[in-house]
Amino acid sequence: MSIDEGTAARVAKLARIQVAPERLPALAEEFSAILGFIEQLNEVDVDGVEPMVSVTPMRLKRREDVVTDGGQQKAVLANAPDAREGFFAVPKVVE
């Protein structure tokens, strides 16, 4: 798949990347090379191949899902500009 300069400019704009007009041909070439590599990867037959997290077989470490209060109330409230009775104190916004 080939990317033209107009498409490259549109992608750069969507990515909020400022690209000088003289750099657009090189950017379009880079995009085309990336898409060419992706097309090569799509040709690989992966039927029957299980997804893996590592090159060595291993099971992901898991922890018990337990609800706690975090045990850091004082440390968190130390950052607050105003804290009372163990909670953040904020100005009243509803009259």
Automatic annotation (TrEMBL):
Any one GO biological process: translation
InterPro entries, per the entry: Asp/Glu-ADT_sf_sub_c (IPR036113), GatC (IPR003837)
Enzyme Commission (EC) number: 6.3.5.-
SUPFAM superfamilies in the record: Glu-tRNAGln amidotransferase C subunit
Record keywords: ATP-binding, Ligase, Nucleotide-binding, Protein biosynthesis, Transferase
Molecular-function GO terms, alphabetical: ATP binding; glutaminyl-tRNA synthase (glutamine-hydrolyzing) activity; transferase activity
Enzyme class: ligase
Transmembrane segments: none
Reaction it catalyzes: L-glutamyl-tRNA(Gln) + L-glutamine + ATP + H2O = L-glutaminyl-tRNA(Gln) + L-glutamate + ADP + phosphate + H(+); L-aspartyl-tRNA(Asn) + L-glutamine + ATP + H2O = L-asparaginyl-tRNA(Asn) + L-glutamate + ADP + phosphate + 2 H(+)
Ranges in coiled-coil conformation: none
Family in the record: Belongs to the GatC family.
Function in brief: Allows the formation of correctly charged Asn-tRNA(Asn) or Gln-tRNA(Gln) through the transamidation of misacylated Asp-tRNA(Asn) or Glu-tRNA(Gln) in organisms which lack either or both of asparaginyl-tRNA or glutaminyl-tRNA synthetases. The reaction takes place in the presence of glutamine and ATP through an activated phospho-Asp-tRNA(Asn) or phospho-Glu-tRNA(Gln).
Assembly and oligomerization: Heterotrimer of A, B and C subunits.
Database matches in HAMAP family: GatC
Protein name: Aspartyl/glutamyl-tRNA(Asn/Gln) amidotransferase subunit C
Organism: Pseudoroseicyclus tamaricis
Source species taxonomy: Bacteria, Pseudomonadati, Pseudomonadota, Alphaproteobacteria, Rhodobacterales
